[in-house]
Design goal:
It comes from Streptomyces polychromogenes. The chain has 248 residues and is α/β, with parallel strands linked by helices. The protein is built from six helices and twelve strands. It is elongated and about 60 Å long. The mean pLDDT is 93.
């Protein structure tokens, strides 16, 4: 099994480091790590170092030694961004969690016209904070050292602007007539950015599809079944990662 991951502000080069605060408490009181066990310290932005537990002190201090220097994981050749329409309730955190575990590179909340959930004011700020915290914790749990970025919530016009900058812009669509091409056979770039839009439970409206089409996005389908918005992004990410070779 791979070593557990803990987040630090700056990755230590060694030879020894004391992990304190919430991360130290989690390592000592929750994980109950013992001397001799391996750990990974990362900034969540691709930089990391592996070391060995020397001692657990008190309730929130983990002494790590034998750090092997700083390693930097390169950016992926094909970067996958999912524009996720806001689901109801806690389904948004479920979507962020599973997409992070799968390997998505960035997640952008989208206030689609058919979204029941509305992110406004303080509620919007709290919801965004939850999504970002979920991505961080899920990144640690899945042993990633480069966590997905969770951007600010965008309007349809702003999503269209993002799609216009992508090397490949895609919109998931459940209608086989509107989306005749399956995601599994779409021509992918060898490098660059793929931006994929996942609509709300009520689907992407014709007006939104038209705006996205003007930005260069084409509709694609996943399969015969229709997935919930909170699971569609995860399934689509898995398809794309397998085809780009990142799951090979």
């Amino acid at each position: 099994m791979t070593a557990p991951v803990f987040v630090v502000e700056e990755v230590p080069a060694g030879p020894e480091f004391v992990l304190e605060g919430p991360e130290g408490r989690h390592a000592v009181a929750v994980k109950r790590l013992n001397p001799g066990e391996d750990v990974v310290l990362t900034d969540g932005r691709g930089r990391w170092s592996q070391g060995v537990v020397k001692a657990a002190e008190g309730k929130d201090r983990l002494v790590v030694t034998d750090l092997h220097g700083i390693v930097e994981e390169p950016e992926p050749a094909v970067r996958i961004t999912v524009v996720q329409a806001l689901p109801k309730g806690d389904r948004g955190e479920v979507a962020v969690e599973t997409m992070t575990e799968t390997g998505v590179d960035a997640i952008v909340p989208w206030q689609a016209s058919r979204c029941i959930t509305q992110w406004r004011g303080e509620r919007g700020a709290k919801s965004l904070a939850k999504w970002r915290a979920t991505a961080r914790e899920s990144g640690k749990q899945s042993r990633r050292v480069r966590f997905p970025e969770v951007g600010e919530a965008l309007s349809t016009k702003q999503v269209a602007a993002l799609l216009a900058t992508a090397d490949l812009a895609m919109v998931l669509h459940e209608d086989r007539e509107a989306a005749s091409e399956p995601l599994a056979t779409a021509a992918l770039p060898a490098s660059g950015s793929v931006v994929l839009v996942v609509g709300p439970e009520g689907g992407v409206s014709p007006e939104e599809l038209a705006v996205f089409a003007e930005a260069g996005a084409r509709p694609y389908r996943l399969g015969h079944s229709v997935l919930r918005t909170s699971t569609a992004g995860t399934a689509a990410t898995a398809v794309l990662l397998a085809r780009t070779g990142r799951w090979s």
